[in-house]
Amino acid sequence: MNKKKILITGGAGYIGSHTCVVLMQAGFEIVVLDNFCNSSEIALTRVKKIVGRDFKHYVLDVRDTDSLRNVFAVEKPFAVIHFAGLKSVNESIDQALNYYDNNIAGTLSLLKVMKESQVYKLIFSSSATVYQQSTIMPIAENSLLSACQPYGQSKLMIEEIIRDIVKVDANWQVAILRYFNPVGNHESGLIGEAPCGKPNNLLPLISQVASGELANLSIFGNDYPTLDGTGVRDYVHVMDLAKGHVAALQAIESWHEALPLTVNLGTGRGYSVLEMIHAFEAASAKVIPYKMVGRRAGDLAVCLADPSLAATLLDWQAKESIEKICADTWLWQSMNPQGYTEI
Hints:
Elements: E1 5-9, H1 14-25, E2 29-34, H2 41-51, E3 56-59, H3 65-75, E4 79-82, H4 89-94, H5 96-117, E5 121-127, H6 150-168, E6 173-179, E7 181-183, H7 202-211, E8 217-220, E9 232-237, H8 238-252, E10 261-265, E11 270-272, H9 273-284, E12 290-293, E13 302-303, H10 308-314, H11 322-335
Parallel strand pairs: 1-2, 1-4, 2-3, 4-5, 5-6, 6-10, 7-9, 8-12, 9-13
Antiparallel strand pairs: 9-11
């Protein structure tokens, strides 16, 4: 078994593609699986350009257990990083069955083949949406768990499945990484966040307003108990997140607890919607028109990570500034106004 080869499911996606770059730069060999239902093959071409090295990829849905089994037999990976899955909170409400099928059935297929192939090292891409909504901040890993929409529920159910198998089989070495608000892009402008259709997240929306793709930004609520009345979130640069996966791979080598290593990946520092707008205006030299509209049901005033456990267990902390986040986002938007097209 190749100790340097990492299999990455969903490796052409936003966080996956950036993690491919960081892994290869750290000396790992990678193999990517992606069905490109919400990503582009161009992203993988761009990763190769950034790193200057080639790698194999398979067009494959992880629910196709037989094909997945063949990939493991050929590639013999040392570990797996599992990103593959649908990820829109709002879409999941209308497409709950599709989300449960894709995310949970896909993970079950992957875990089954990993066990058959005796590949027991896994990094799972989870989310802060697994936490019960609360006004107690920051959120630590021992906070109550209770997702309020199908996307978060699918992540929580997968976490529970992983915890169950790890309890009874000491071979497994697993890290569960709960992301807060991934933002930014690679500083080259070659890879970045390219949502299909209208974005759901704040930074892509701001950048499309700055570029003229959208007329203005809607801010949902300006009467929260925050400094300026708008919601505050924990924004972490995607390259910091990617480095967290390398740190997790190293940490699970010596992890032999009865439960998976589970950590938040966030900064512990919050920025309001208006603060993000002003930071982006400074980075882009563009005015961001916006309008205030009513609150969305279920939105919290503040959502922040307690990242101290990641610092202790992974020797990881987010380092990139909000200025860097906005500058990298604007470069990506400027170079790729229509997302992944050849440049």
